[in-house]
UniProtKB/TrEMBL annotation:
Positions of the UniProt region annotated as Disordered: 184-208
This protein's record includes keyword Nuclease: no
Protein known as: Putative lactoylglutathione lyase
InterPro entries assigned: Glyas_Bleomycin-R_OHBP_Dase
Organism classification: Bacteria, Bacillati, Actinomycetota, Actinomycetes, Pseudonocardiales
Annotated SUPFAM superfamilies: Glyoxalase/Bleomycin resistance protein/Dihydroxybiphenyl dioxygenase
Keywords: Lyase
Length: 208
């Protein structure tokens, strides 16, 4: 495998989740939902980020999410690294809207350029090695605290972050148990990484 084709979120209410994500993401074929009643409690160990071009676009996406029923975990604001905020979808998934740019350069629109999946790792070095062994290559590495992998154009980007640091960034407590409620598509066979995240086979071109 070389990158993530699709992300499948496991939700209790498919109709509600589809309505929410249509309002926020439009018809993005990379994000899918399916029914699941697997128990989960607390932090699920991952977050998803929508990377936008400017703060105004982030605000527009944030507003669309809140209007559709999301809960604000961190209001969108400027920081030393850029601009962003965090919300939790009604199904429990944590999403971040972020841009490295602090100034607007055009009219606001609820649009995004990339989706990034950050997995909270108990041992970043061990998880990094798992992905290297399965064909991914490192794009950025910060002393085994944060790892970002190369991805194919249009694919969901994958990163590893220390679990506690990821929870802090999301504005939630790091403790959690049960199902991650997410499956990653793009592996040649079913795999499970050291932190329990499942990879499944999928083909965007064949299924879209």
């Amino acid at each position: 495998m070389t990158s993530i084709d699709t992300i499948t979120l496991e939700v209790a209410d498919i109709a509600a989740a589809e309505t929410f994500y249509a309002a926020v993401l439009g018809s993005d074929h990379r994000v899918r939902v399916r029914a699941s009643q697997e128990p989960t409690d607390g932090f699920r160990g991952f977050s998803l980020s929508l990377i936008v071009a400017q703060p105004a676009d982030g605000d527009a996406l944030f507003e669309a999410a809140v209007d559709a029923g999301a809960t604000v975990l961190k209001p969108a604001k400027k920081s030393f690294w850029g601009y962003g905020g965090v919300f939790q979808a009604p199904d429990g998934t944590i999403w971040k809207v972020a841009t490295p740019n602090k100034k607007n350069t055009g009219p606001a629109a609820p649009r995004y350029d990339d989706i990034v999946l950050l997995l909270g790792a108990a041992d970043v070095a061990a998880s990094k090695q798992f992905y290297l062994d399965h064909g991914l290559t490192v794009a950025k590495s910060f002393r085994n605290m944060y790892i970002e992998f190369d991805s194919a154009p249009g694919a969901v980007k994958l990163g590893l972050y220390r679990r506690r640091a990821l929870a802090k960034d999301a504005g939630v407590a790091p403790d959690g148990s049960g199902s991650h409620r997410i499956a990653l598509g793009g592996a040649p066979e079913q795999l499970t990484d050291p932190d329990g995240f499942a990879w499944e086979t999928s083909s965007v071109s064949a299924e879209s």
